[in-house]
Design brief:
Helices cover about 75% and strands about 0% of the residues. The protein is built from 11 helices and no strands. Helix 1 runs parallel beside helix 6, helix 5 runs parallel beside helix 9 and helix 5 crosses helix 11.
Length: about 200
C-alpha cells in the first residue's frame, strides 16, 4: 500500500493525490486506509518515511570500511547516483515536499534520525582520509552529503528542463558512466584528493 501511495503522491503531489485512488489501486477502502494510517496526511508522511528509509538503508549497508578513503567516497557517491536515477518517484516526492516547505516532513518522528547513519559513514571515511593525508581538514560529513545529493538530485529532477534548454538528456545511457564518475571526481577534488 505504501508503494502505491508513494507513487500517487509523487505523481500528483500531496494536494492532488486522492486516497480513493490509492484505495482502488490496492483493492482496499478509503475507510481502511484512514483506520490504519489516521488520514491522508499520515499516509503521506508514512510514504515519505518509506522513501527516505530506502536510501538511508542503502547508505547504511554500504561496505566501505575495507576500502581506501578515495574509493570509499566514490562508492558512496555512486550508490546515491544509482539510487536517485532508479527512483524518480523519490526525487519527485522530495521536490514536492520542498515546495510545501517541508511541513509534512517536519511532523515525522522517524525522519530526523534517519540521516545519522549516513553521516556516520561519511564521517568515518573523512577521518580516515584526513589521517592518511588525503583529505583537507575543514570539511564535514554534511557538506559532502549535500554535494553528492545535490548533483544526483539535480541530474534526475532537472532532466526535462535541462534537455529543453541545452538539448542534453542527463539520463542518456551513453553518458551515464561519465556522470557517475564525474560526481566522484567533483567530491574528491573538493576534499583535496586526486580523483
Amino acid at each position: 500500500m505504501l508503494d502505491v501511495a508513494l507513487a500517487e503522491f509523487a505523481d500528483k503531489g500531496y494536494a492532488g493525490a486522492r486516497v480513493d485512488e490509492i484505495a482502488a489501486r490496492t483493492s482496499t477502502t478509503k475507510r481502511m486506509i484512514y483506520y490504519y494510517f489516521g488520514g491522508k496526511e499520515q499516509l503521506y508522511i508514512a510514504a515519505l518515511e518509506r522513501a527516505y528509509a530506502a536510501i538511508r538503508g542503502i547508505e547504511q549497508r554500504l561496505d566501505v570500511a575495507h576500502l581506501d578513503p578515495v574509493q570509499a567516497i566514490r562508492r558512496v557517491a555512486e550508490s546515491t547516483f544509482d539510487h536517485h536515477e532508479s527512483h524518480p518517484a523519490f526525487i519527485r516526492l522530495v521536490s514536492i515536499e520542498n515546495i510545501d516547505h517541508g511541513r509534512h516532513l517536519a511532523k515525522s518522528a522517524e525522519l530526523p534520525g534517519l540521516g545519522t547513519p549516513a553521516l556516520e559513514v561519511l564521517t568515518g571515511i573523512l577521518e580516515r582520509g584526513r589521517d592518511a593525508g588525503l583529505f583537507r581538514a575543514d570539511v564535514d560529513a554534511l557538506d559532502v552529503h549535500m554535494a553528492i545529493s545535490s548533483f544526483c538530485f539535480f541530474r534526475t529532477a532537472n532532466r526535462h528542463t535541462f534537455q529543453a534548454i541545452f538539448d542534453r538528456d542527463m539520463l542518456a545511457p551513453d553518458r551515464r558512466e561519465h556522470y557517475r564518475r564525474m560526481i566522484g571526481d567533483l567530491v574528491l577534488s573538493y576534499l583535496g584528493a586526486r580523483p
